[in-house]
Amino acid sequence: MRRVVITGQGTINALATSSGETFEAFREGRCGIGPLDIRDVDRLAIQIGGQVHGYDPQQEFNRQEISLYDRFTQFTLHAAREAIGQSGLSFSGDLAAQSGVILGTSGGGLNTQDENYRAVYEEGKNRVHPFVVPKLMNNAAASHVSMQYNLKGPSFTVATACASSNHAMGQAFNFIRSGMATVMITGGSESMLCFGGVKAWEGLRVMSKDACRPFSANRNGMVQGEGAAIFVMEDYAHAKARGAEILAEVIGFAMTSDASDIVMPSRQGAARAISGAMKDAKIHPSEVGYINAHGTGTAANDKTECAAVSDAFGSHADNLMISSTKSMHGHVIGGTGAIELLACIMALRDGIIAPTVNYEEPDPECALDVVPNEAREAKVDVVLSNAFAFGGLNAVLALKRV
Amino acid sequence: MSASVKEKVIEIIAEQAVLEVSDIKLDASLEDLGIDSLGLVESIFAIEEAFDISVPFNANEPSESEFDISSVSAIIGAVEKLVAEQKA
User: Fold this and answer.
1) Domain carrying residue A59
2) Among A114, A152, A231, A266, which residue's Cβ finds the most Cβ atoms within 10 Å?
């Protein structure tokens, strides 16, 4: 089996419009969550979110492109440009045929749907723009990446709610590992911060009105974010032969299904995914130094996740660090695992663990080292990234320092 | 408590619990009636729609919500209060 490495990374999220600036925000423990600036926000009960700022689509795309690119596609292309640029790769001939795109998203072109439903239902219009369908479809972002960079191999989009991008990256990893592809562009994107997107989440009554405080006893729910992160995964031998800079090695992946409840997480399902990723990576639990938690800040997730980590690691659970960067960039739903993988790479490469900010009160049900409020210097060799979706679908990745 | 609010709330809870209205005891908790967290959120939505009110309730901290859900009679009382406040 081939080894798989990451040779490019890119992002746009509530903290920054590049990976370098995102790492800076992680190191500073900066929170990117604030008042939502969207149409009809006054009719929402939840008025905060991790919205992208400092981004002007007109600066990056021309008029024809904007008419085809929903916000989630724009975020994807923005992040892909940084990632593929960093990798130094260009795709032609055999390499193009052996390289593809697998991305995660939950809502796809939700802004496009929201705007056009509004036009026909609220405003009574009987005509919509001709590109509504190619703009809103979930695979639009993956297809535009493939067109822009000439990626002609296996390409598709994965939608498993909050685990979408971990599932996508796990597939990309296995495509290269098994020899089905040489390079895969992977990650995820989400832009659900529109009236309909937030209103739908309000209905479940799991959203916080003031802040995302993962693992803190006074946590009162999740906060939605938006953005994307894209990675270049590459066959290790290929990367080595061309002298590419290697950011991290992907060493394992596992996915499980709880088969129990449509919204409540399962301790066993999560623990099986965590243990499965370590088994797939052929590592002992004691080698893991850091876990990027799913850590949504809901009552249910955080205590279940901590219990699952305790089950999977036994006494080593008390020696490792686990933090939730959702406290800073919000829950980016189908793109969240990709943005969180950046914190894993930062831990491995820079020896800096991103903190869980807004942490105020210890919770006996979350009694792990959650790296509260301040980033920490620590040398770690192996890290995990957890994602547990509504519908009970779990996906965990294992990465190693190279 | 006003008969109309009481009857309507009991009707909503009975439907959610898949029980007859006559089986809903006022001192029963939602747990006694077999209503789980999703059932609770759905019941609150039905109450909001039935009375055209907004119920302050966060599933992450049910005990800290102003809306008392400890028993059927507590819920009826809380709904009556909200109806009075929000229709004033």
Assistant:
1) 4-241
2) A231
Structure tokens at A78: 């923005």
Count of the separate structural domains present in chain A: 2
Q: Which residues of A touch B59 (CB under 8 A)?
A: 204-206, 221, 298-299
* Confidence at B79, pLDDT banded by 50, 70, 90: very high
- Distance (Å, rounded) from C-alpha A393 to C-alpha A397? 14
Helix (H) or strand (E) holding A354: none
Q: How far apart are CA A280 and CA A299, in angstroms?
A: 30
Q: Return residues 293-312 of A near B (CB < 8 Å).
A: 298-300
The answer to whether the Cβ–Cβ distance between B60 and A263 falls below 8 Å is: no
The widest CA-to-CA distance across chain A, in whole angstroms, is: 63
Q: Tokens for B7?
A: 């009857």
CA distance A282 to A293: 21
For residue A185, what are the β-bridge partners? A101, A232
Helix (H) or strand (E) holding B51: helix B37-51
Whole-prediction pTM: 0.95
Q: Is the pLDDT of residue A4 over 90?
A: yes
Nearest to A183 by CA among A157, A229, A156, A151: A151
ipTM of the complex: 0.82
Give domain B3-87's CATH number out of 3.40.50.300, 3.40.50.280, 1.10.1200.10, 2.60.200.30: 1.10.1200.10
Half-sphere exposure of A335 (CA within 13 A, CB side): 35
Q: How would you classify the pairing of strands A156-158 and A99-104?
A: parallel
d(CA A333, CA A330): 9
Residues of chain A neighbouring B57 (CB-CB closer than 8 A)? 205
The Cα–Cα gap between A299 and A287 comes to 29
Quick check: B2 pLDDT over 70?
A: no
Compute chain A's Rg from CA coordinates.
20
Tens-place pLDDT, residues A288-300: 999 999 999 999 9
Which two three-digit tokens encode residue A18?
Answer: 């590049």
**A133 and A186 together in one domain:** yes
**Catalytic choice (A78, A167, A238, A331):** A331
User: Measured between beta carbons, which residues in chain A are less than 8 angstroms from residue B45?
Assistant: 203
